[in-house]
Amino acid sequence: MDQNLKQATVRGETSLGIEFGSTRIKAVLMDHHFNTICSSSYEWENQLIGGYWTYPMDEMIHGLQQTYHQLKQEVEKNYGVTIQKIGSIGCSAMMQGYIALDQTGELLVPFRTWRNATTGKAASELTEKFQFKIPERWSIAHLYQAILNGEEHVTNINYITTLSGYIHRLLTGSKAIGIGDASGMFPIDESTLEYHEDMLKKFDDIIADKGYTWNLKDILPKVYTAGEHAGYLSEAGARLLDPSGNLESNIPLCPPEGDAGTGMVATNSVQKRTGNISVGTSIFAMIVLDKNLSRVYPEIDIVTTPDGNPVAMVLANNCSSDINAWVDLFREFYEAMGQKPDMNQLFSVLFNEALKADADGGGLLSYGYYSGENITGIAKGRPLFVRSPESRFNLANFMRVHLFAALRLGLDILTQKEHVTIEHIWAHGGLFKTPLVAQKMCASALNIPVSVMSTAGEGGAWGMAILASYMVNKQQHEGLAEYLTTKVFIDAEGQEVSPNSTDVNGFALFMERYTEGLAIEQSAVDHFVENGKKA
């Protein structure tokens, strides 16, 4: 037993990060030296209900309580301590989406996640009005689409927020949001670090004839930057998190953030000209800009770091869902053979096969669009695997072709059209737990050196715990970048993989086929949609 960790827990010299990811709710408790005391998780999945991807709110609360309960039990088991005090807490979640609440705090419609591609008209109109890219995922696009649809609930809106902001309000009662997550709700003014005032006014002018009693600024959460206090754990919040009654209230909470922001923190990528890639149900790259882009691009979102620096975000809605489904198929085969598979081993074996693949993927193509893919203009989720009679169809090539293609399309705009310099990429997420495989494929796909830290598997909950720690432990005038570089990551170990020229050229050939094949994907979607109408 580590006595230092035990004493830190007893004294409450700890930070708790909780993150609501797309497949797991995860919590990490760490000490003020950034050592993980304990972690826990709860698996959940989105559901397609009434045409929208959503998560039931009762499962959200259950998952939060189960995750904390498991963490609490592990601490008691390992250190003989019942958690009563925590130095600071932070909540993060999937960015963007739409949670609309009435005056009593009740949901007006089920939570609409980032995954929904149902706001095309709203996003397009707002992008034109603002001359600023408004993605379909953003909260303002969801709100405006609801207005265009004539949805009755809009009249009764008192507050809209993201998932992280919703959890934060349940725990504190505060209508707060971190600037990184806020930048996925509405455009941020870099000079004021607040919502863009001119665009707020434009939006109110657009909907003036609707006669709503609210204006946009009044129903948005207050924007906070990293290091600020954004509320305290209320008595009701403490009982929600820990129904046993052991946890004390009045614990400070840092601004709630999105998973993009916690990914930047977890990879020490908040400084200009740094970048990171986060891999999960979706895949996105965050490049911290040192200059503004010359124009608006449909494939590039402009968001911010948790301390307010502008970031070019390239997000592909789909990454691991389809490949996970294929791995599950292999699991079923394994079980049909009378074997009980170790899923970690199964993933490891299959992904390592990809290292034996042809550089161009053997002529195979995979469009793992479990949901619509905004970056390629595909509106509906229709996973598609394509091969020709000449394709080299084997396990290695099959495993090779499922990742990074859509992301590459967006990054090409930054590097080739805007001449953005990306010197290095840090990667994190569960996919990178398998040593070297995803890292090597990523480096070849993007033609950029890719590093993975030893902390890569910790993910956003750990990054959120760091933000909570920064709030209470930073020195006066100590910026987030300095705190990360000189304290959190000063002794961090990482492994770098540089792109291999053969693999880079092979992936370029694969991308030519992939781009041409998008017409096949769109044709398949059109076919299914048309047949669905007839049915």
- Mean pLDDT comes to 91
Count of DSSP strands? 22
Number of helices: 18
Low-pLDDT residue intervals, each spanning 5 or more residues: none
Which structural class do the helices and strands define?
Answer: alpha/beta
Task: Give the helix level as a range of percent.
Answer: 25-40%
Fraction of residues in β-strands: 15-25%
Through-space gap between termini: 63 Å
Q: What does the largest sheet look like?
A: 7 strands, mixed
**Cross-sheet strand order for the largest sheet:** 16-17-15-14-20-21-22
Morphology:
globular
- Radius of gyration, taken over Cα atoms and rounded to an integer in Å: 23 Å
Q: How would you briefly describe this protein structure?
A:
The chain has 535 residues and is an alpha/beta fold.
Please tag this protein with its features.
single chain, 535 residues, alpha/beta, seven-stranded mixed beta sheet, five-stranded mixed beta sheet, 18 helices, 22 strands
SSE blueprint:
Elements (H helix, E strand, L loop, with lengths): L2 H9 L2 E7 L3 E8 L4 E8 L3 E3 L2 E3 L2 H23 L8 E6 L5 E3 L18 H11 L8 H10 L10 E3 L1 H10 L3 E3 H4 L5 E2 L4 E2 L1 H10 L9 H4 L2 E3 L10 H7 L15 E2 H8 L8 E5 L3 E6 L12 E4 L5 E7 L3 H17 L6 H11 L11 E3 L16 E3 L8 H6 L4 H13 L7 E4 L8 H10 L3 E4 L5 H15 L6 H9 L5 E4 L3 H34 L1
Parallel strand pairs: 1-6, 6-13, 9-12, 14-20, 20-21
Antiparallel strand pairs: 1-2, 2-3, 4-5, 7-8, 10-11, 14-15, 15-17, 16-17, 18-19, 21-22
Helix pairs in contact: 3-4, 10-16, 15-18
